[in-house]
Amino acid sequence: MIIRKIREHDAENFLSLCKQLDEETQFMMLEPGERSITIKQQREDIKNILSTYNQTIIVIESNKQLGGYIAGIGGNYQRNKHTCHIVIGILKSLCGKGLGRKLFIELEKWAYSKNIYRLELTVMMHNKKAIALYKKMGFKIEGIRRKSLLVNNVYIDEYYMAKLLY
Description:
30% of the residues lie in helices and 36% in strands. It is globular, with a radius of gyration of 15 Å. It has helices at residues 11-24, 39-50, 99-113, 128-136, and strands at 2-5, 55-62, 65-74, 83-90, 118-124, 140-151, 154-164. Residues 1-166 form the N-acetyltransferase domain. Pfam families: Acetyltransf_1.
């Protein structure tokens, strides 16, 4: 397994990964079939992320396929450019192998190099495995987003979690 920064030519594989994650888990944002982006649009999105100093996507590659990722999207303004919102997804077949921890380590190295001070994310309160990983990586719960998501006609609360790097 290789952990590396995404490349433009990963667009098709990355889109496939995201669609598979949409199908495999209810913990990602999009419902199965809701992702309507084209490969060309995905390539443009990746190109834009790679050209923005405080944004990145780091992927797990195995047998020329992508098996997971962590995205860091920094703020757009002077007042929040030091803050980075995180999204992470790993295929079920690769869970439990320490890859989430490795992705966070790589993201933190990148964040330090970009003078990003604050990492933040949201997580469904019943996603115990993810919460355990985030706490292990030093994230703290800062608040609760009540009924922030609607999944299968049930409102879901989320924790708002963050980690200060220095």
